[in-house]
Amino acid sequence: MINKKIYVKPKELINFGAELCEISTTTAKRYLDKMCSKEGLCTRLVVGLDLMLNIHCLKEK
Predict the structure, then answer these.
(1) Cα–Cα–Cα angle for 40, 49, 11, rounded to 5 degrees
(2) Considering only CA atoms, which of 43, 47, 45 is closest in space to residue 56?
(3) Residue 47 to residues 8, 14, 39: CA-CA distances in angstroms?
(4) Residues in Cβ contact with 20 at an 8 Å cutoff, skipping those fewer than 6 apart
(5) How confident is the model at residue 45 (pLDDT cuts 50, 70, 90)?
(6) Given 3-state DSSP classes, what are the helix, strand and coil percentages for the chain, each rounded to the nearest 5?
(7) How confident is the model at residue 26 (pLDDT cuts 50, 70, 90)?
(8) 3-state secondary structure 14-41
(9) Which of 60, 39, 50, 49 is closest to 7 using CA atoms?
(10) Where are the domains of the chain?
């Protein structure tokens, strides 16, 4: 069940994810592309002049 939304810039998420998971930024971008697919948990949108990601967080049980 979706409980809240988080908006973040793609580059920040790629760099954070790469650091956190100890993977390259290229691999992190590939994971992000997968997450933003039709079946994924995030969508890309433009807010003002910035490209942002809308990440749907799952509610913990």
Answers:
(1) 50
(2) 43
(3) 10, 18, 22
(4) none
(5) confident
(6) 40, 35, 25
(7) very high
(8) HHHHHHHHCCCHHHHHHHHHHHCCCCCC
(9) 50
(10) 2-58
Q: With bands split at pLDDT 50, 70 and 90, how would you rate the model's confidence at 48?
A: confident
**Average confidence (pLDDT) over 8-27:** 90
The interaxial angle of helices 25-35 and 10-21, nearest 10 deg, is: 120
Q: How much is the CA Rg of the chain, to the nearest whole Å? A: 12
What's the pTM value of the predicted model, to 2 decimals? 0.69
Percent of the chain scored above 90 by pLDDT?
20
